[in-house]
Amino acid sequence: MSDRPSIEPALLATLLAAAPARVLKKVEAEAASYAAIALAAEGDALIAAVGSERVRLTPDQGRLGRADQLACSCLLSPRCAHLLGIARSLPIADDLSVASVAEGAPPEASSTSVLESEGAVLEARVALAPEQRVAASRALAAGAGVVEHGALALGALRETELLRAVLGARVASLPRLAQALLRVVRGVRALASREPDFVLEVLAEDLHEALLVAHTLDRAPSVPRGAIGRHRREMSSLGAMRLTGLLTEPVIASTGHAGVVTTLVSDEGRFYTLADVRPGEANRARASYDAAVRLGDATLSHAELARSGLFVQEATSSSDGRLGQGQDVRAVRRAPTPRPDAPLGPLFEVPAKTQRERLLRELARPREERTPGWDLVLTHATLRARAHDALIFEARDGTPLVVELASDHPLLRDREALRTIARGQGLRVGLALRARIGRTVRLALLGLFVDARDADAGLVLPPALEGRLLPSFDPLHGSYLTREAPCPEVTIAREDDPLAALARRTLRMTSGGRGSIGAGSRNAIERECRELERVGLSTAAAALRGLAHEALTRTRDATGAQGRGDAARLARAYLAAAEVSHQVRLALLG
Questions:
Q1: Of 358, 394, 386, which Cα lies nearest the Cα of 373?
Q2: Looking at the domain assignment, is residue 101 inside a domain?
Q3: Is residue 104 part of a domain?
Q4: Which site from 2, 46, 182, 541 is most exposed, i.e. has the minimal number of CB atoms within 10 Å?
Q5: Distance (Å, rounded) from C-alpha 391 to C-alpha 421?
Q6: What string of H, E and C letters represents the secondary structure of 18-60?
Q7: Are 121 and 66 in contact (CB under 8 A)?
């Protein structure tokens, strides 16, 4: 049995567009059964047995990008339900192979130059070519279709429109738009297949991003460079550099991929990553931690890399900090580095309050323009209490930190580690945290760092761990605690969400479309608007009224028959509501 390969959006869109409507209906109706069909290896091919027929896939490095890589034994191939059902069940390939940049856009900068010139990058404006405007218009129409009908009602036909919009954005060199649309497609699929880790709020954020970028590109004569975005895998030369391992974290994605990502730090304090993420089951994340990774001439496991480092010649990196592993790269392993030494030590000395302010500044920027490692928080802290599934630490500057599990997956050790840590009130450690942004800033625990020179830290780690414990992978035994004092249980007060009404209505429309706001809800919505005005959120109230108005507006044809209304106007009202909600939440976080 083999893992499922990914399929290029352009290929899937072409296959679905050529299929008869009756075949697409059959594919939609039996989507779950196609997804459950296992693929068996047969030489260089993968075979799916669909009833009495055999669908043959011949991926290239785990990807399908050409029509001749798929075939079915039936006479209707490639327009048969067998082939289309298997193709639609495959994870959609990410934008990893695009090498061109937008016409007139500056070449990809290294991480250093991006940091030093981020103001110029964000302020630079680019005039759009006609084909880019056409691509933006198509994307806007595809996004409006999602708002009109709702993600729950999107079948293969409307998914094809989204995939065509992805392709159009790629061809027109609009990477930010293409990536946002692709996330929407994946979110719609995850909702349809009832994936356990699906989050409706994430799909709503992705739809908001896609509509916002498409609207900006469709309307303005010129746009900020950030609206176009950067191609994620354009590699820039960094020359010679020294990297120090910081941590390794698991990846178990809803797309069917699993593995690990190791974060390293340069001597200048910049973050880079080296990943081993491929199609596979969740247990691949645990296995990859101890599996060999190669960069240049250096071969070591991710567990070792997180605790040592590399000398690299001819280093390359993408704009999001992913290290290149090309044949010209040369690297040798470095000895383990104690955490108090440079470059890691100074990163933990930055006050937690300052790091939070930096995080919020980065959050206000487009996703593709954020500095690599923008959501990492590294700080010294003391354990004070526990609260349900969280630990309460106090940073050295007095900032309280509510620290949660990075993952609750049963194959990982995070929950076991949290229970053990909770037995060590007064524990003094370095924390590596990943910020998760929602109504509040939540902090997920990625690593514990112990200074061996601190006799009162309360935690002693085996020498093999080199002063750091990664809770997802490394067992944290109670014997590591030098003193046991169970943390007192506290209750974290949950504040009322002033934007709850607006958020609820936009989420319902994300999943249910125009029909989620019925005529009988007029009075309830007006009460919600008055409540928003009462707490000073008059702009949010206006956005909610506008959304309700467009949802309830119906058109009539020449015969007087009532239609659904203008999808484009509804999409603009949805975008306005989502943008107001986003901006208000940013202000509240600050």
A1: 358
A2: no
A3: no
A4: 2
A5: 8
A6: CCCHHHHHHHHHCHHHHHCCCEEEECCEEEEEECCEEEEECCE
A7: no
Q: Whole-structure pTM over 0.85, yes or no? A: no
Specify the amino acid at residue 557.
D
**CA 202 – CA 183 distance, rounded (Å):** 9
Residues 6+ apart with CB under 8 A from 265: 243, 244, 246, 271, 272, 343, 344, 347
Q: Is the peptide bond before 107 cis (omega within 30 degrees of 0)?
A: no
314 and 378 co-located in one domain: no
Helices and strands (H and E) in the chain: how many: 20, 21
80 & 158 share domain: no
Alpha helices in 291-340 (DSSP H): 302-305
Q: Give the residue among 67, 75, 66, 55 at the shortest CA–CA distance from 4.
A: 55
Query: In the structure encoding, which two tokens stand for residue 52, read together?
Result: 């009495």
The contacts of residue 500 (CB under 8 Å, 6+ apart) are none
| Residue 278 one-letter amino acid | R
Spatial distance between the Cα atoms of 134 and 64, rounded to a whole number of angstroms: 27
Q: Which residue shows structure tokens 């840590």?
A: 421
Question: Tokens 């203008």 — which residue?
Answer: 566
Which tens digit of pLDDT belongs to each residue from 427-462?
999 999 999 887 788 899 999 999 888 888 999 999
Which pLDDT band, with edges at 50, 70 and 90, does 426 fall under? very high
pLDDT tens readout for residues 507-532: 999 999 999 998 888 899 999 999 99
Paired with 72 in beta bridges are: 55
Domain that holds residue 175: 125-228
The closest alpha carbon to 311, from 243, 237, 236, belongs to 243
Q: Residues 525, 439: one domain? A: no
CA gap 391, 323 in Å, rounded: 33
Beta strands in 177-269 (DSSP E): 222-224, 236-252, 257-266
What distance in Å separates the CA atoms of residue 168 and residue 162, rounded to the nearest whole number?
10
Same domain, 516 and 562: yes
113 inside domain:
no
Task: Enumerate residues 6+ apart whose C-beta is below 8 A from 46.
Answer: 2, 5, 39, 40, 56, 57, 58, 59
